[in-house]
Amino acid sequence: MTCAVADGGAPLRRAAAGDHDHRGAAGDHDRPGDDHDHRGAAGDHDGRTPATIALLGAGVIGAGWAARFAVHGHDVRVFDPAPDAAQTLERALAAARRAWRRLTLAPLPAQGSVTLAGSVAEAVRGCELVQESAPEREELKRELLAQAAAAAPPHALIASSTSGLLPSRLASDMSGPERFLVAHPFNPVYLLPLVELCGCTQTSPETIRRAARLYRSVAMRPLVLRREIDGFIADRLLEALWREALWLVADEVATTEEIDDAIRFGAGLRWASMGTFLTYRLGGGEAGMRHFMAQFGPALALPWSHLTDVPQLDEELIDRIVRQSDAQAAGRSIAELERIRDDCLVAVLRGLAGERFGAGEVVALAERNLYERAAAAAAPRTLADGRLVLHRALVAPSWIDYNGHMTESRYLEVLADATDAFLREIGILGPYIDTGRSYYTVESHLRHLAEAHAGDRLTVATRLLGHDAKRLHLFHELLSDERPGPIATGEHMLLHVDRAAGRTTPAGEEVLARLQQIADAQRDLPWPDAAGGQVRGPWVPAP
Ligand SMILES: NC(=O)c1ccc[n+]([C@@H]2O[C@H](COP(=O)([O-])OP(=O)(O)OC[C@H]3O[C@@H](n4cnc5c(N)ncnc54)[C@H](O)[C@@H]3O)[C@@H](O)[C@H]2O)c1
After folding, report:
1. 12-234: CATH architecture
2. pTM, to two decimals
3. Predicted confidence (pLDDT) per residue in 85-106, tens digit
4. Is the Cβ atom of 188 under 6 angstroms away from ligand 1?
């Protein structure tokens, strides 16, 4: 059965028996029982080549996993008996694509396929990883994991998304438990980087190492537990807060909205970057953590917390919570709230990426990997006519102005990035710049010829119109995949300078040699009509 295409991405389909993936990635030719991974007998995956990931369960979490893996270029095969599994997967994929387009301008790899399988055995055929995300019932999970372990290739990692069940219990019916672990993600899985990894006594260190590597390759931050405990780390912390919050509602101290406000306008903002301990360290001032402990430690003896008790979750309390929660949502649908949540998460992650701190470090690293991967697979850098293509960009939604298209300053930004790419091409790199020499742009003439919209892919074709020892004359054409002809042109004059001396100097011999090579390759190109243009108003007589 072929399902609809979501948001221009890869088709989501239910595989017929014997159906093969379209891409010839890992496991195409594997059959149940095949024990060979063509990338290496140990099955260690580099995370860069597409792998096949088997997912058992495609609810909130399973669909989130599918979206994360597919957005990062892996092929996903899903087993879920629910009749609406395809729709759930499509929704998650669309949300993930939207979120990642907003999160980064770095080029994402070609999206992996997402295929529904008719059985556990079919889903796990030739896979690198089985990720089980079925309902939180121990018996059900044990049986599914045992089936998966029997049918998956022996090298495949087998992971459960359980929020708190002990891995040693989940592994008790499966063959080869040394390759089993819990990999506990957070909702929305396609956006939040944290995944807690928890093995049992049988889990091999190699399994944890391989799993960490694979999850890292899809822009996650694995946190390896030192030993197995119920609830792992994050859910223990979340449950402590949740119990306290339920008591505050039960005791009619606060409404659900007031409790959420207490978090989101205060501590929640600090938690996003620093967590609890680093935040409290700052609370201790210059005297640091010891002072903080001395100052606030005694308060722990006060009977503030109900932590070990649970309020009676009777109908009255549940009704109150539901009523207050409905009021808080103010008529917004779950889909609307999910979109708001994702956009806010993207904003926080983007902000943290600029600081390269906390989860922002993960985003910054993912971006670097995406750029490197794209550069390695880059299309030809020289067009047939000799123009250079050194810079590409994707129009981000935040680049759109009130007129509904790309705002004017972004045209210059993309062209300036193309100029930087040209300078790198001629050797103006770290070691050269460290000698105090560089080029400065001294004049630009920009023409805006057509609109660009969010999601449009832009390419800059660059010509060297002229150069001498100190000057560089560039002409860029900004091209869009969406329409023929340039959407802008930029003409720029640059001077070679000695920064310390504050004056122009001749460029280095090696730079001039590379410039001459480019000039020779572009010698036969006609002079662009628009070059040498200027802004002419009606008050300036035409020459
Ligand atoms: N929801 C969360 O916030 C969250 C966060 C982290 C981890 N988890 C864990 O992830 C797992 C899944 O939770 P969820 O929230 O996605 O639940 P869910 O109810 O949204 O999804 C469960 C899915 O499993 C499917 N399913 C049922 N029986 C199955 C079977 N035999 N084989 C394959 N699929 C089957 C269901 O049809 C459903 O689509 C649970 O272990 C949960 O503890 C949940």
Report:
1. 3-Layer(aba) Sandwich (3.40)
2. 0.71
3. 999 999 999 999 999 988 987 8
4. no
